[in-house]
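Q: Given only this backbone (494 positions), what sequence would you predict?
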């Protein structure tokens, strides 16, 4: 199998928004040089009917839990305390609380002709949300002392960035939790936090398989299903909507990142074959550890297209840690060769960005099954906001920040979602901050937490479920607006 290394534009596209632009010249250069094929990828059981969209989504106890006052989730305190009881010797404390946040620099954006389209910075948003909390007395009555560590997609060694980040958070400072977005799943970073007993409430899009996640029991993925769930969700969604049939010939793009190959061989591939579908060709890409990894295998995008075309592939599925960069590069290379396959993707394709960056004839063949409105479609096409999103926007307005672009909202919802969930868990434990107590409280929430990130706020947690999203919706190209829009069909992600 051919191999192609992913590079920093993977993270770039995962954080980009609908205002992003890439010049045709840059796209052509990236395709010609074998630019990043990217690093992202649930089980959709049955069609659950139409998503009505519109209106604020909240329900019962959860609405009160994430409302403006941030009250405790009804019933969660008792259940959470039970989970917290498994942590030996932990006591609730008072006073300021140190919380860690990892900021993502994208200083290589210009090299790829990419503009994130943001009107505010991640730091502006983070500082404003923390300040808004502290204006209201802090989190569970404790003023937040934020500790920021920095990574950059342009770094030559992402591992070194994350090693330095963990040292700053756990040695130079002593955070009790790490919250929000990180652009990559870094095993050494997660191991560092786990050894210190620090919970990581992560909104990363790079979520590996069940076995890999089992190594980090204090890691909770808020924004993305683990790779088996999201890969099978795409297959079921494509079958249910007629995008994929037994007559089609599948081309598979996988990577060598932690858990991907295992999930493919043990879960996704057997599932595809059990449906009587045909896997015609497989192309493997590498797993990046820094921005320069692509240089040694430049030009492989053309090889992938040639391999798939020769094999007669007409449907492309990417059960990898990233989808957007892969589709971006493949689509431009395919257009240059006059080839128009169909793409079966998820939220990790970042349709809100792809719509403005790939040829229209290629975009028309992209079919997605997503759970992140801010990734799937332009802001004008989003369903109604959840109660958590309304709270987040209001907090920022209090500090003089008005969100405009999709990237602005992405910055906001990433930090707000992790803080809101941590707040609920902290209240449920009676103020105890040890990792086992916090994660136990989150597990006890079941399906009651309304998220600031995922579709309709729908989440599910449990002892064997640390990856939250539970609902997906079909999106496809709309020639009228030249953008991706949601269609009525929704799916449960099992």
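A: Predicted residues:
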């Amino acid at each position: 199998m051919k191999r192609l290394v992913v590079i920093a534009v993977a993270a770039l596209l995962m954080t980009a928004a609908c205002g992003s632009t890439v010049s045709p010249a840059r796209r052509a250069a990236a395709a010609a040089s074998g630019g990043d094929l990217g690093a992202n990828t649930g089980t959709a059981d049955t069609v659950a009917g139409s998503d009505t969209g519109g209106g604020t989504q909240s329900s019962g106890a959860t609405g009160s839990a994430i409302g403006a006052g941030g009250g405790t989730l009804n019933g969660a305190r008792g259940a959470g305390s039970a989970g917290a009881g498994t942590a030996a010797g932990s006591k609730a404390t008072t006073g300021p609380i140190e919380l860690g946040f990892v900021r993502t620099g994208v200083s290589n954006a210009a090299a790829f002709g990419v503009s994130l389209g943001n009107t505010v910075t991640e730091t502006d948003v983070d500082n404003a949300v923390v300040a808004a909390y502290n204006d209201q007395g802090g989190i569970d009555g404790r003023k937040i002392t934020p500790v920021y560590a920095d990574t950059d997609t342009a770094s030559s060694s992402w591992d070194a960035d994350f090693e330095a980040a963990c040292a700053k958070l756990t040695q130079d400072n002593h955070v009790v939790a790490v919250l929000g977005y990180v652009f990559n799943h870094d095993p050494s970073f997660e191991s560092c936090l786990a050894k210190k007993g620090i919970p990581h409430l992560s909104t990363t899009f790079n979520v590996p398989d069940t076995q890999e996640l089992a190594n980090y029991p204090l890691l909770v993925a808020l924004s993305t299903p683990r790779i088996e769930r999201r890969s099978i969700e795409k297959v079921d969604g494509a079958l249910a909507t007629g995008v994929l049939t037994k007559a089609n010939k599948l081309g598979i793009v996988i990577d060598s990142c932690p858990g991907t190959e295992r999930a493919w061989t043990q879960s996704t591939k057997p599932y595809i074959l059990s449906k009587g579908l045909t896997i015609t060709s497989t192309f493997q890409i590498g797993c990046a550890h820094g921005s320069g990894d692509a240089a040694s295998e430049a030009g492989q995008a053309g090889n992938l297209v040639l391999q798939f075309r020769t094999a007669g592939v007409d449907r492309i599925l990417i059960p990898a840690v990233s989808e957007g960069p892969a589709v971006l590069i493949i689509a431009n290379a395919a257009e240059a060769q006059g080839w128009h396959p169909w793409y079966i993707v998820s939220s990790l394709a970042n349709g809100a960005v792809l719509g403005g960056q790939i040829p229209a004839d290629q975009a028309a063949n992209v079919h997605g099954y997503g759970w992140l409105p801010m990734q799937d479609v332009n802001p004008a096409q989003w369903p109604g906001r959840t109660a958590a999103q309304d709270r987040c926007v209001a907090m920022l307005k209090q500090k003089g920040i008005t969100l405009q672009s999709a990237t602005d909202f992405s910055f906001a919802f990433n930090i707000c979602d992790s803080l809101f969930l941590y707040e609920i868990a902290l209240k449920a434990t009676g103020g105890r901050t040890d990792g086992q107590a916090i994660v136990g409280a989150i597990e006890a929430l079941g399906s009651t937490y309304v998220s600031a990130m995922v579709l309709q706020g729908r989440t599910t947690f449990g002892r064997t479920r640390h990856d939250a999203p539970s609902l997906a919706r079909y999106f496809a190209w709309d020639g009228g607006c030249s953008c991706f829009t949601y269609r009525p069909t929704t799916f449960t992600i099992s």
